[in-house]
Structure formats: structure tokens, C-alpha cells
Design a protein that fits this description.
It contains 13 helices and eleven strands. Helix 1 crosses helix 11 and helix 8 packs across helix 13.
């Protein structure tokens, strides 16, 4: 995947002086969200729209375009007029994983979109049904090695699919992948005893963990998660191949390619401010979103590094889709 456009876009933004909110045009803005209504991505999008509208005075409409792992939404925004009034909110997998999975697709993100902002990152948690008796990641991998187990995800190339592929490749343990259309469907079959495990968004399983329906074994990032601080990281298992395990995903905002640099910078500044506001901190915590701080790595570099990582995993796993 060509990511040079990301570096060019961010370099231009960095060279410009900060642009204040009034620089944004008065027209209605459409924020296209690459998920159905009600999920974490949608909730984040509606919060951003509400806060941005209150700051700029603009009307901001959230439009949900789910499907094809974010590609449908990305194509919609890529075809839009590059005037700064249409934005895409999506998972980073649209840029880091999809280009290596949807090889037959005519859509090329680098030709259609420009990165506006990396809003924040989120962990996933490895969970199993509580009646499985499994208490630790080490025990899970041992049992998975002794008897073939399965896991569910929200579909080919979804975060849960990619995360478990990373875990199995790094640990050398094989599991059978059962793709679903959504994470709630995975949970329903996990409760019903048809699915052995899964990597899922922490906010989405927190209630089930607290109620004793699921056991949380390990979080995917390199530090413990504040929502479930008693659950160790995968790396803390000290298992061979997993000592440096650190996998997260991110929320990105894009604009159509050719959007004026001043508009991109203005949105970048406003969105960064919203993500740091005390008024949004509790919602971000509830959604388990850690605002991104580019102290050592720029958003473009972060996306490029994730793309290289997922490319290796996807090619080794043979993950492909004609969708």
C-alpha cells in the first residue's frame, strides 16, 4: 500500500499555523461513519459531531455507511467534493489491513482520501465463556494446543480476526476461525457454547465479564487497561513469542483527496481539541478510547507501521476477500 500521501498531508498540516474554528465553512458538514448506528464508532461520531457543531456553529450530519470492512464508507467519501465538508470516521483497518485483503478491489485509498486525524487507540480483550474453566492466557493457549479450539470474529479482516491471527502466529498455536457479521452475534454463540473464544472490544464485553458470563484472560496492548485493571496483558503471560505483544487499533478521520490543506489543518486542530476536552473524557473512557498523543510517532508513521505489521500477518495467514 502506498502511504506517501499520508506523510505529505501531515507534513503540509505541520507547516501551517494553527487555524481556528471560524476558518471552517458555514455549509452543512457530513460525517460518514463506517459502521451501523449504535456501536462505539457511531457513538464516537455523534459525540464529535455534537462538539464540533457547538464550536463552529455548523450543522454536522452523521451518515452511517456500514459494509465491506469500511470500504463502502471510504468509497462514498472518496467520491465527494473535496471542499472540507465531507469527512470519514473509520477504523484504521481501512488503511492498514484492507489493502492487503481486498486485492481485487478497484478502490485505492491512497488515490481517494487524505488523513485528517488519528483520534485515539483502543485495546481488545481475549475472552472465553466462564464455564470453560480457563483462567489465564497461558492456560488458554495450552488447551488450544492440546485440542483444536475455535474463535469468533465480526468477519474476515475485522479487528477480532486480525488480533487472533497475530496471537496464533506469535504463539504458534492454531485455532479455527468462525466469521460472523457482528460482535453481538459472536457473543450470543459464545454464551450458547458454540464459540470457544474471541478478541473483542473491552467496552462491549465489560458487562458480561462483571456478571460472570465471560472470563477476561488478557488485554492486547502493552499496558493494563483502566476498565479492567486486574486483567494482565498478553505480554505478561511470559510465553515464548509473546513477550513483546502489543496490538491496538485506532479511529481515523479522512477527507477526500484534494481537500485544501487549510481545511484539513482546521479539522485536525478542532478534533484534537475535542479529544482533549474534560467534557468528553468520561465518554472516551466509557468507550475505552485513549486519545492519541504523537510524542514520538506521527499519525502517518503509526498507520504505516500498522500497515506493515498487518501485511505480514495477512499474507502468512492467507486472509483474502473478494467482497
Amino acid at each position: 500500500m502506498k502511504l506517501s500521501y499520508l506523510f505529505r498531508s501531515l507534513a503540509v498540516c505541520a507547516a501551517l499555523a494553527p487555524v481556528t474554528a471560524p476558518a471552517l465553512a458555514a455549509e452543512t458538514v457530513t460525517l460518514v461513519v463506517s459502521s451501523a448506528a449504535g456501536g462505539p464508532l457511531d457513538v464516537l461520531g455523534r459525540m464529535l459531531a455534537r462538539e464540533a457543531s457547538a464550536t463552529t456553529g455548523q450543522t454536522i450530519v452523521v451518515e452511517n455507511r456500514a459494509g465491506a470492512s469500511g470500504t463502502i464508507a471510504a468509497e462514498t467519501v472518496g467520491r465527494s467534493k473535496p471542499d472540507g465538508n465531507t469527512l470519514l470516521l473509520t477504523l484504521d483497518t481501512v488503511a492498514t489491513a484492507n489493502p492487503h485483503i481486498y486485492l481485487k478491489s478497484n478502490f485505492r485509498l491512497s488515490d481517494s482520501l487524505e488523513l485528517v486525524s488519528l483520534l485515539g487507540t483502543f485495546d481488545q480483550v481475549l475472552v472465553v465463556p466462564s464455564n470453560s474453566g480457563i483462567k489465564t492466557a497461558a492456560q488458554f493457549l495450552k488447551e488450544a494446543g492440546d485440542k483444536r479450539m475455535n474463535y469468533g470474529s465480526a468477519g474476515i479482516g475485522s479487528p477480532g480476526h486480525l488480533m487472533m491471527s497475530a496471537l496464533t502466529q506469535d504463539s504458534g498455536v492454531k485455532l479455527d476461525h468462525i466469521p460472523y457479521k457482528s460482535n453481538p452475534a459472536v457473543l450470543n454463540d459464545m454464551y450458547g457454547g458454540r464459540i470457544d473464544s474471541g478478541f473483542l472490544v473491552i467496552a462491549g464485553v465489560l458487562g458480561a465479564v462483571r456478571e460472570g458470563k465471560l472470563t477476561a484472560l488478557a488485554v492486547s496492548g502493552n499496558t493494563r487497561n483502566s476498565l479492567i485493571p486486574d486483567v494482565p496483558t498478553v505480554a505478561e503471560s511470559k510465553l515464548p513469542g509473546l513477550e513483546n505483544f502489543d496490538e491496538r487499533f485506532a479511529y481515523l478521520v479522512f477527507a477526500p483527496k484534494g481537500t485544501p490543506a487549510a481545511k484539513i489543518q482546521s479539522w485536525n486542530t478542532l478534533l484534537a481539541d475535542i479529544m482533549k476536552r474534560p467534557s468528553t473524557a468520561q465518554m472516551l473512557r466509557t468507550l475505552d478510547i485513549q486519545p492519541y498523543a504523537s510524542s514520538t510517532t506521527s499519525p502517518a508513521q503509526w498507520v504505516q507501521e500498522r500497515s506493515q505489521r498487518w501485511k505480514r500477518i495477512i499474507e502468512k495467514e492467507g486472509i483474502r476477500s473478494d467482497g
